Amino acid sequence: MKHSSICGVALVSLLLSFPKINFGQAPTIGTTLKSFAVFTATGAFSNVSPTSDVTGNVGTNAGAFTAFPPGTLNGVKHVANATSATAATEVLTAYSSFPAGGTVIGIGLGSGQTLIPGVYSTGAASTLNGLLTLDGGGNANALFIIKIGGALVTGTFATVAVTGSASLCNVYWQIGGQFDLGNGSIFRGTVIATGPINLLGDTKFYGRALSTAGAISLGPVGFGPDTVNVSGCDVLAVSFSSLTANRTSPANVLLRWETVTEINNSGFAIERSMGNNSWESVIFIPTQAPGGNSSSPLTYTFNDLNTNKGLTQYRIKQVDLDGRAKFSEVRVVRGIAQKGKIIVYPNPSADGSVNIVFEDQEGIRDVAVTDITGRTIQQWKSVSSNTLQIENLKTGIYTLRIIMRESGNQRVEKIIVSQY
User: Fold this and answer.
1) Are 18 and 195 a contacting pair, CB within 8 Å?
2) Strands 410-417 vs 197-199: parallel, antiparallel or unpaired
3) How many helices (H) and strands (E) does the chain have?
4) Which residues contact 384 (CB under 8 A, 6 or more apart)?
5) Residue 91 in contact with residue 212, Cβ under 8 Å?
6) Pick from 205, 105, 183: which is nearest to 145 by CA?
7) Which of 51, 122, 360, 383 to pair with 336, CA 20 to 30 A apart?
């Protein structure tokens, strides 16, 4: 008993020696919002860098969307649709669900600073320079909540490091204004801001970048390599390097895809849609990765018996060992009665959105859309993907012009939009 009493006194003394920490509760991130890596409820979304790489869904519920292309998106774009509307509601809920109070810290974060799990508040606009370490102390469930009472601006090459077994998915930033991630910086956690979010050149953002009301901008501002890498917390760790679908005969379509890495992967469900706005499952292809894990490229093929006379859309549903799933980008093949090397659908368009499929898989293209007066409405340079989505077209007749960079050959198609 004497020994226990001494230990109890020592423990009380130890606890009293620490600053007052509010451990709080994690903000509420809705099911739909969890699937987004970058999202704004209200505001434009733009990306200027052809080497930007985002894993997770992206979108805006109210604003122009000019991204992907350029850049690479391992996810789905949601612009002013049912999914973005739900996410817009959930991001407002998430911002308001941050716990009150917190340990007051200075507005100058970083410069070798280390924080232990807890709720922190700066009370004013803040800056981040150098290294900020969030140390979980060996606790995998350690929770960090950092509330910025205004805008947050990081200097160049600023870094947020997560150590001590902590997870970046348990790091939350509430920013009461604009968030600027400086050139060459590395940031971790879920950011929920009330203003614009600007991720500048050569930055790496691991987590989610979400705004209740503000424009999203990805890409360089006159600085070095122009890569922005954003990875969402709840995104499955299977990375596709390629996915193609080609009609090889009147009765056959060949699907081919390659993965760079696979973690916890069960396999791939092939799904198709033959113009009836519904998807059907074709076959499930088990993973080639031993135990569902691989760090080497793996190649898969499947030959689908397909005699459809119209367009057929294909997608891959990747399923992990825990049952979670995500969808690949959609690939489109022509029917046996269709000719030509460019597919435009739907045409006419009833909502101002048109999909373009380039049947010739290889090559770099410049693409432009002009109205009946010859004025350029939208244009894309150095398009290497075999698909392109054109959005926000108003009622009218447009000319689609594709120029192959290597040969200079041109193709012209008409697009009709009738939003009635």
Assistant:
1) no
2) unpaired
3) 2, 38
4) 363, 364, 365
5) yes
6) 105
7) 383
